[in-house]
Structures are given as C-alpha cells and as structure tokens.
From TrEMBL:
UniProt protein name: Pyridoxal phosphate-dependent transferase
Cofactor entry: pyridoxal 5'-phosphate
Gene3D superfamilies: Aspartate Aminotransferase, domain 1, Type I PLP-dependent aspartate aminotransferase-like (Major domain)
Organism name: Lactarius akahatsu
The entry's keywords: Aminotransferase, Pyridoxal phosphate, Transferase
SUPFAM superfamilies, per the entry: PLP-dependent transferases (SSF53383)
C-alpha cells in the first residue's frame, strides 16, 4: 500500500516520473512482445532482427509465430555443437539438481576438478596446466590482463590493430576493431599500445598481398614499438587473436605467431593467445594456435567451451600462476565436460574440415563468377570461421580496394536479404565483410541450403544497383 501511495503521489506531480506506474504495469501478457522489448531493453544492445526467438535446435532457430530459419551465427561461435545439444543440455539440467553455485572461494568441488581433468587432455601445449574459470570471454580477458601484470609486475600491454577482446573496461582498452565499442567511455585503461596485424588493409596493400611481406612488416613495427613507445622493462604482455574476429576473420600466418613468440621470449614478455572465438574446433583443430605450434603463456577460451552456458577460462603454466597471491582471483564454473566428450564421440573435427572444404569451394566459385566476382575482394578464414569481404564504392580515398561499381553497404544488405530468405548471417569489421559461423556439426544438406541462400542474396543485391 505504501509503495502504491508513493507512485500515485509521484504521478500527480506531472513530472517525467509520471510514466513509472504505466511502465510497472506493462507486461508481455498485456503488450506485444516486440513493443515491450523496444521499450524496456537497453538501447545499447544492437540486433540483427526485431523479432523474438521462441526455441532453437541444432542449426535451426524458430521465431515467434513459427518462422524457422537456418542459423549461420551460432551466437557468434558460442553454440558450436548446435543449439540445445541433447547431451550438453541434459548434463546441465542434472547438475542444476545437484549443485548450482559451488563457490570456489569456499572449497574445491568435483565438477570443477573433472573439467580441469578433461581440459588437460586437449590444451594445445603440455605446459598449460593451471586453470582459472570465469563467466564470459570478456571476463577471462580481464583476468588474463590482471594476471600478466601481477606475474610480471609490469604495466603495459601490446594489442593488435583490428583486435576484439570484449566490451568490459580492460578488454575494451585492448579492443581495436571498431571505435563504437568504446564510444563515450574514455579515458580507457592506461598502458595499452597498438601494433599492426598482418592484414593487407593495415598496410594499404591489395587483396592477395604476400603473407611473408605482411608478416615481416608487422613484426618490424612491433620491434619499433618496443624501442619507441613501450620499453620491454615496462611491458607485461602481447595479446593477440590467432584469427581476428570483429577485425574481419583474418587468420594470422603461422610465421607471424612464431615471430611474436620469439620477440616475447627475447624481451621478457608474456604471450596471451585469445581463442575465445577461434577455439574449440571452430577452425578445424581444437585450438587455432596448434597450426603454428606456438606455446601460449596465457590461453583464453570461452564461447564453444560450454556451448551456450556462461563459462570461460584462462590456462597457463603453473610456475606462472604460482606467482599470484591467493585472493586476487575468484570465480566459479559450470560443468561442460560433455562438450569435450562430444567432439570425440561425434567426430566433430572431421565434419568441420569436410564442411569447410565444401564452403570454400562454393565461395571461390562465386568469386570466379564474372558478374559477382568483381564485387568480392577476398574469401578467407579457416575451418568454419569464414569470411567474404565485398568491395566498397567509397570506403576511403586511399584504399586501393575501392570499387566504384559495387553497390554501397553490400555486407549489411546481403545480411538483411539472407534473413528475408531464411538465413541468419552476420557482418563483421569496419569493412564490407560477412562471416559464416555455422554449427560445427552442421549437415551437408543444411550447409548447402545456406550457401544457396547466400548466393541468391548476393546476386540480387548486385542486380538492384
């Protein structure tokens, strides 16, 4: 009663607070769900569709009203085993009836230890034997940055141009893919310097530029950075995605990652490998860093680690984490050991590499088409982390890849057309790029359907120009 009187008095004053009673009484039961969402969900969240998802299974998503679409987004590489994988979902449900919040600041608990036991068999290097769990990729990045500073007692962090590591404060400071992620948030975490990634755009080169030359130029710029901007004595770590995510799905050549390892060893820096999006089979091996054979000092994993449940991890050698003081780090995990089991039982990596070959073959054929090809600058990626970059008529007057005859905003227009035709497909980077992130266990038939929709969408957008 007291609350009701207070609301009535507030409303009677005629101020903007008079909308409060109405807002409190609105519900999904009395308002259309989309109208309710548009009123009450923070404007800071962007989305591909103004619709409401009701359920999802495997590679398919069903919206309110029964419309079913093929999902080539997988929560940006989260549901790697498809939506609602039966074994993973069953294990989570059973765990919820046994132990939900096993606070690791109180004691060890069995699911925590069983998860470590399972992960020890799949980490990319035998030295990675000390685990810290968190809830999200951004949180794991924050933890890795904190660890690097705590272990080395040095402040500065070298980030890569085009990188994405998250939207929380420290992660946002090392994110260099789009300015929008930090819009209005300055000053950011200090002590971050930026070095080029071997992507042809970063050196004003053309598509197909020689990898060896891009690697040489990138490593030279990093060496200059350590001489001119951040001395090794002040620098804790280099953080890098082995495949740029929001920077455009650009795989790092193995020689670049090997060069980073050499420079870090020479200068006493830690090497942080962020596999939040590229890890857990996404690129055809359990971790992308395995292609280069490089040993991380800190390995960050999330997304596919738990197939949709909130879990991330930082893994490192025990001799490094033994330098941390107890109490400086604390979090809790859920129990996704069934994800790792499914990779073996369902031969997921075999499917990734088979479907990857089919996807690349189709995209290269599209690029070779005399009508479509002039508008496609690049087809790239690894495994089922694949991108198509379109040309742009006016990206920059200095960009050698500008194509005046290409329709404007190709990537967003293709993405929207795909949605109309029944395919979820996301854009990425500041360039005209779309990305393919299907479930790793997608069937040949579903992959073929998605490719067909994409081809139609591209052709229609070009013909509309």
């Amino acid at each position: 009663m007291l609350l009701g009187r207070q609301l009535l008095r507030t409303a009677s004053r005629g101020s903007r607070a008079s909308v409060v009673p109405q807002a409190l009484t609105r519900s999904i039961a009395t308002a259309p769900p989309i109208e309710f969402a548009q009123r009450h969900v923070s404007k800071g969240l962007a989305r591909l569709s103004e619709d409401v998802i009701e359920r999802a299974e495997g590679s398919w998503v069903t919206f309110r009203g029964g419309r079913t679409v093929l999902d080539f987004t997988c929560g940006i590489g989260v549901t790697n085993l498809g939506h609602c994988h039966p074994k993973v979902s069953k294990a989570a449900a059973e765990q919820c009836l046994n132990l939900v919040h096993g606070q690791c600041g109180i004691a060890y608990h069995e699911p925590y230890l069983r998860l470590i036991e399972r992960l020890l068999t799949i980490v990319p290097h035998a030295s990675l034997d000390s685990f810290f769990f968190a809830n999200s990729g951004s949180e794991a990045v924050e933890a890795a940055l904190k660890m690097a500073r705590g272990i080395t007692r040095k402040q500065n962090i070298v980030a890569m141009q085009g990188a994405f590591h998250g939207r929380t404060f420290g992660a946002m400071a090392v994110t260099k893919s789009k300015t929008v992620y930090a819009d209005g948030s300055s000053p950011l975490m200090p002590g971050v310097v930026t070095s080029p990634f071997p992507y042809w755009h970063h050196f004003n080169s053309a598509p197909g530029a020689d990898d060896a030359e891009l690697v040489r130029a990138s490593l030279y710029q990093l060496e200059l950075l350590l001489l001119q901007q951040s001395a090794p004595s002040d620098t804790a770590a280099v953080i890098v995605e082995p495949v740029l995510g929001e920077g455009g799905y650009v795989p790092a050549p193995p020689a670049f990652l090997q060069g980073l390892r050499d420079i870090c060893d020479k200068n006493g820096l830690l090497l942080i490998i962020d596999e939040v999006q590229s890890g857990f089979g996404r690129t055809g091996r359990m971790f992308n860093i395995q292609y280069s054979g490089v040993r991380p000092d800190l390995l960050i994993m999330a997304k596919g680690l738990a197939n949709g449940f909130p879990l991330s991890a930082v893994v490192s050698p025990k001799d490094l984490t033994d330098k941390l003081k107890p109490g400086t780090m604390v979090r809790l995990p859920s129990t996704p050991i069934e994800v790792a089991d499914a990779f073996q039982e369902e031969r997921i990596l075999e499917n990734v590499n088979a479907r990857s070959a089919e996807l690349f073959e189709a995209l290269w054929a599209l690029k070779a088409d005399p009508t479509v090809g002039p508008h496609i600058l690049d087809v790239r990626g690894q495994g089922l982390m694949v991108a198509v970059e379109f040309a742009s008529p006016a990206h920059s007057q200095f960009d050698p890849a500008v194509q005046k005859k290409t329709p404007p905003s190709m990537s967003m227009r293709v993405s929207k057309r795909c949605l109309e035709k029944g395919l979820l497909l996301l854009t990425t980077s500041i360039y005209e790029t779309v990305r393919f992130i299907p479930a790793l266990n997608i069937s040949p038939e579903d992959l073929g359907k998605g490719i067909g929709i994409f081809k139609e969408a591209v052709e229609e957008v070009i013909h509309e120009a």
